[in-house]
Amino acid sequence: MSPSETYRYLFGPVPSRRLGLSLGLDLNPLKVCTENCVFCQVGATTELTLERREWVPTADVLAEFDRWAGTGGRADFVTLSGSGEPTMHSGFGDILRHVRAAGGFRTALLSNGSLMALPEVRRDAALADVVKVTLSAWDEESFRRIHRPAEGLSFDRLLAGERALREEFRGQLWVEVMLLPGYNDLPDQVRAIAERVALVRPDAVHLNTVTRPALAGVEVPRVPEAWLRTVAPWFTPAADIPVFAGRTPAPGSLSDRAWIELLARHPLALDALAASAGVEISAIERRLAPLAAAGQIVLEDHHGVRMARVASP
Q: Strand 77-80 vs strand 106-110: parallel, antiparallel, or unpaired?
């Protein structure tokens, strides 16, 4: 985005490990969600609910997108994601229709899958080119321990909704599995998750662990990459371990406000930022140093990876 442009509901484009260069559309106030996952990079959920409504004005989101596209904005994907579960927004289907009508953009919906049991949610989700859902548990107990869902959401409902989506959706359906030490990384636990994932019949499985600081009030370490590679073949299809791709603007091309708004929704590894911008990590550090000195962002080492995130309130 241009330094002269400011947006409330758009962020990025950012380098994505799955989608290349991704422009995010944030449809939730911080932090409204159906779950309060222990591994969340955004922070603890402050309004835990299954309510679907127009959480932010649809017209304002579309106006910002049109303004961005009108300035020649380019991205590999326009992605509904951000501060919470995007399918909670009653107008997310209208937003997908608008982006598709603009032409030249592929669309992605990054969902935790919690509302896919609703036919109207599946109908609108099917408008996206790619839908990513999450499946990191194998039964009710593990689901509640990892995802800490809103009242009324169960593991059986989640799995049934994701399976129903597969029956109706003709685009690319991806399942993300987040492995966490002490929660779901033991061999029998991973195999149990893999059995449930196979029931969804995804086009791809993405195997992840915590790569950004978890800010939901729980200390969650990373699973070693060697273990991820060991268990990846247990999934059907065999799981991928995503890597960053895409190209971001030079570090000086974003305003201070744009950096803060971006990092509030999407903490990022400095090596991924540097690689996507084609610069040295030191250039990213220099650009962000004044914001860190002012206490607006935090630069920290997270399990051996240098990260940038917005400062906690």
A: parallel
pLDDT at residue 107 is higher than 60: yes
Percent of the chain with pLDDT over 70: 88
- Quote the CA–CA distance of 149 and 215 in Å, as a whole number: 17
Query: According to the model, what pLDDT value does residue 265 have?
Result: 67
DSSP string covering 123-143, please? HHHTTSSEEEEE---SSHHHH
Band of residue 215 on the pLDDT scale cut at 50, 70, 90: low
Distance from C-alpha of 313 to C-alpha of 115, rounded to nearest angstrom:
30
Distances (CA, A) of 81 to 12, 163, 228: 11, 21, 25
pLDDT digits (tens, 9 = 90+) for 291-310: 888 888 888 776 667 877 77
Domains detected in the chain: 10-247 (3.20.20.70), 254-313 (1.10.10.10)
Global confidence as pTM: 0.78
Give the model confidence (pLDDT) of 220-252 as tens digits: 788 888 899 999 999 999 999 875 444 556 666
CB contact at 8 A, 202 and 175: yes
Q: If we measure between CA atoms, which residue out of 92, 66, 41 comes closest to residue 302? A: 41
Q: What is the DSSP string of 186-236?
A: SHHHHHHHHHHHHHH--SEEEEE---S---SSS---PPPHHHHHHHGGGSS
Looking up tokens 């032409």, which residue turns up? 103
Q: Name the token pair of 303.
A: 């399990």
Question: In angstroms, rounded to a whole number, what is the distance separating the alpha carbons of residues 116 and 160?
Answer: 8
Q: Residue 277 and residue 274: Cα distance in Å, rounded?
A: 5
- CA 57 from chain centre, in angstroms, equals 21
